[in-house]
Amino acid sequence: MLMQHLADYAIKEQTSDLPKEVIHHAKRAVIDWYAALLPGSIVAPATLLELAFADDLDRGKARLARGRRATMRTAALINGAASHSVEFDDIYRDAGYHPGSPTISAALAAAQGSGATGERFLRAVIVGYETSTRIGEAVMPSHYKFWHTTGTVGAFGAAASAATALNLNHQQFSHAVATVGTFAAGLQQAFLSQAMSKPLHGGHAADAGILAAMAASKGVTGALDIIEGPKGFGNAMSVNPDWSKVTKGLGTDYHINHMTFKAHGCCGHTFPSIDGVLHLVQQHKLLPKDIKKITLATYKAGLDIIDNANPEGEYQAKFSLQYTVAHAAVYGSVRLNAFMPERMSDPAVRDLMTKVVCIADPVFSAGYPGQRASQVDIETTDGRKLSHFQPYRKGDPELPLTDDELNAKFMELAEPVLGERGSKRLLEQLWMLEKLPTAEFEILSGDVRAAG
After folding, report:
1. Phi-psi region of 353 (alpha: psi -120 to 50; beta: other; left: phi over 0)
2. In which region does residue 320 sit, left (phi positive, over 0), alpha (psi from -120 to 50) or beta (all else)?
3. How far apart are alpha carbons 271 and 418 in whole angstroms?
4. pLDDT (0 to 100) of residue 448
5. The pLDDT of residue 445
């Protein structure tokens, strides 16, 4: 039974001698999560969730992004949604999955709620990542036809991380992960409108994980074959899942070492095309007026989500290959300001969008999800034909963000929320996580101060 293997691993990891590389990459994941969390905490749906769940705020031991007290479940819910809102959160490529939003949100809430150390919090994050990324690999790519992995697979990551942070035993861990399997949800229809449902997938998964772990700690049981059973998660939500991927390398080959950290503030499926266009524009010093046509050949699973020539509003624009590529060509980047009203109505961007042609390449489509590639061809107004093959995305394990680049991303996204002093202080603490006596960090933001 898969649950036996997962629980064996998790309990061992509570006291294992973790490789320094794994600890380092786990801290990188937490820093990247905070970089996505903080700007997401000051916009909807997080701000609306604070109103909706006001009865669970200003009490409890867990914290929201800027230090406000909350119960564990509500902190996990709101932080999970906030960290998935601005589309800057991490990706485990082979599962098409954003593990940070559900996993770290649940781990932090459980660690703060139970008074865990920074080291236990890190171990919880690692267990959540290793558990959920493997389940995600096992059910992909068929799972992605209808389901959003961050909401579905993320529920397993949240339960595993929360159970580890709460120091549950083997039996309790097993039942926490078993129980959360029946809560796993998140439909891709949520991607196709201006709805706020997609970030709520990360929040719901984090909340479900906390719920399952808290219940298991008091003896609530779950179906231990919920993952691979005949009417379980895999058979219900994928075609021919490969369960060997769940145990392959578990505890030795750490997936957390192979994360993608976003270099652009939009859907990750757009990234190889953005990178390729930026390469050609910068190499040939192209201005928007120099471009007659942009042809993008990339993988079908991505295009099914991002081929949108007429996005309505900020949210759809983040999932529009035409818009993000045109913005990159005009402004040289796709950051948070790319989705401001004045940028979205810029005539130069709008005009360039009409010159973008998207093609599903059969070879690239077959390589998904293990590779996210794009062939970019630009025809200029003076008759030149420029080409660039982008085999990976900037931020992928093959082209990773350096620690310095990750720090710069964190400061860019955190400083408008916490200020320079508060951002630097939090970043210093996050790089020392394994040495901290508590997982409650000092956060300075205006009149909001969390004890540390």
Report:
1. alpha
2. beta
3. 28
4. 39
5. 58
pLDDT means per 10 residues, the chain with 452 residues, are 97 97 98 98 98 98 96 98 97 97 98 98 98 98 96 98 98 98 96 91 98 98 98 98 98 98 96 98 97 98 96 93 98 96 96 98 94 97 98 96 98 96 97 96 57 31
Q: Encoding tokens for residue 208?
A: 């479900």
The domain that contains 319 carries what CATH number?
3.30.1330.120
- Pinpoint the alpha helices (H) of 140-270: 149-165, 170-181, 197-217, 233-237, 244-247
Predicted local confidence at residue 443, as pLDDT: 83
Q: How far is C-alpha 95 from the chain's CA centre?
A: 11
Task: Answer for the pair 115, 98: CB distance below 8 angstroms, yes or no.
Answer: no
Dihedrals phi, psi of 260, to nearest 5 degrees? -100, 125
**Using the 8-state DSSP alphabet, how is residue 132 labeled?**
H
Measure Cα distances from 329 to 281, 287, 310, 323, 367 in Å.
7, 8, 18, 10, 27
**Residue 85 · residue 199 · CB < 8 Å:** yes
Global pTM reads: 0.94
Q: What domain range includes position 15?
A: 2-262+401-449
Do 284 and 252 reside in the same domain of the chain?
no
Burial of 406 (0-12, 13-18, 19+ CB in 10 A): buried
What are the C-alpha distances in Å from 198 to residues 75, 80, 152, 165?
18, 11, 12, 26
CATH number of the CATH domain containing 227: 1.10.4100.10
Q: State how far the Cα of 437 lies from the Cα of 447, in Å rounded to an integer.
A: 25
- The vertex-111 CA angle with 106 and 222, nearest 5°, equals 55
- 396 within a domain of the structure (yes/no): no
Residue pair 166/110 in contact (Cβ under 8 Å)? The answer is yes
User: 337 Cβ partners below 8 Å, 6+ apart?
Assistant: 343
